[in-house]
Amino acid sequence: MKEIGPMKTFRSKDILVSISKDKAKLFTLGPNRPYCGSSSKEVVVNRLINLDDLFFEGLGLWAGEGGKAKGLYIGNSCPELLLRFLDFVEEKIGIDRREFRVTLNTLSSTAKHVSREKWSKVLQIPSENFTAMCEDPRMNQEYAQIYFNSVVLVELLKTVHEKVKSLILSRTEFAAAYLRGIFAAEGSAILRKSGILHHLNISSKDKEVIEFLKECLASIGIIPSKYENESRNLPIHGWRNFKRFGGLGIHTLHPEKRAKFELGFANYKRVNVLQGEEARALILQQLASGPKTYDDLAAALGKARTTIQAHHIPILERKGKVKRVGKRGQAWLFAPAEGKSSATTKV
Fold this sequence. Notes:
Layout: E1 7-8, E2 14-20, E3 23-27, E4 43-46, H1 53-65, E5 71-76, H2 79-93, E6 101-106, H3 112-123, E7 134-135, E8 143-149, H4 151-163, H5 165-170, H6 172-186, E9 187-191, E10 197-203, H7 207-219, E11 233-236, H8 239-247, H9 255-266, H10 276-287, H11 294-301, H12 305-318, E12 322-328, E13 331-336
Parallel strand pairs: 6-7
Antiparallel strand pairs: 1-2, 2-3, 3-4, 5-8, 6-8, 9-10, 10-11, 12-13
Helix pairs in contact: 1-2, 1-6, 6-7, 11-12
């Protein structure tokens, strides 16, 4: 810990580090002048940190959803994420979870004692550490924020995060674990109405964060699409990206997101990845049963309409294998070029 380098608080106070056996004490000194502030609360952390999945997942959770100012803050409605973060804080940083405080946000305060005891048991944080409950009837489910106030501790995590960026990019397992935390905190799986996985999103308004996430994804063979400024999302499309994402288990930390990804990916028909002649052969098979529109073919094959319209059908037309046989409303109908179609069409 002492070799991490010089650290300062956001008010430019030097953070001092005192080493004792396997622990490191972090603190700041107040000025000698009266009425000019005071020393910070001393925080004792682990001197050495073992870099493994728990460390990088916890760091990713903090980077994605944690507070960056007054101390270690993170909030979520998912107990599993909060427990993973508390494991990270206890095992890697060395802060006892019983030192954390909790603020609950709930739909109604009528059963606040029950909610407090339930969350206290789940998080293994004493109920006396819970603050006044916040009531918000607009919420769908209870939301818990856990926090440990310490300016030196949050600056430590900021410094550690910068120091290990090169390590994250150097090894697939490190990048995957870090992205696992990021996706659990700020990611989402977007499904079509049919239940097929359409794309993944990672949200952030910080362009520097986005650039680093692009590097992380590229380091493990995942190429995201263009960042969407309006929605502040970094989307990820394509079967190969989804397969790599799932193969590395990047979706697995958040139970609901995991279930949604796995359902959507399971519904993603193999024809979504067919290329060239194989895909066009399936289009001809579909047309053999009767004329179809671009939308009909897209729904039957589970492929994007634009791929069929802009790529496969023009190739089949140039080869003389399909022809336009009329319209359904404003949509063109296609049929095999050989033989006669029995369908009734309106032009």
